[in-house]
Amino acid sequence: MSSFKAFFKHYLQYFLYLILILLVIYLFTGSSFALGLIIGTIASAVNTFVWHHYLDRAINSDALYISTGMGIRFLVAAMACLFWVRFPEMINIYGIALGLTLSYVMIVIHTFNSLKK
């Protein structure tokens, strides 16, 4: 199985479902929290992809130095927060923060599910 297919199967499909649900909620309510959660969830999906890419590369590498892509993940989080800086009346920062933490929650859930098998 290719790296992207494995990533899609384990993580991305859940992010896509969540983003679609949040988008419907935002369209019906116009909530700034929902919009912040959408932005944070998209950034979280990108961060999870970066993490998965670097993890896959580290597993398949014989190099002594292993990168985790932390700088890229910080930049993605900063970009998500810049949406709030630009549009503070439309976007809720707590929604962005909660959305950014979803990747870590999904990684922990996936780890526990993998340990059960």
UniProtKB/TrEMBL annotation:
It is a multi-pass membrane protein. The keyword Cell membrane applies. It comes from the Bacteria. It is found in: Cell membrane. The chain crosses the membrane at residues 12-28, 34-51, 63-85, 91-112. Keywords: Cell membrane, Membrane, Transmembrane, Transmembrane helix. One of its GO terms (cellular component) is plasma membrane. Its main location: membrane. This is ATP synthase subunit I. It comes from Macrococcus hajekii.
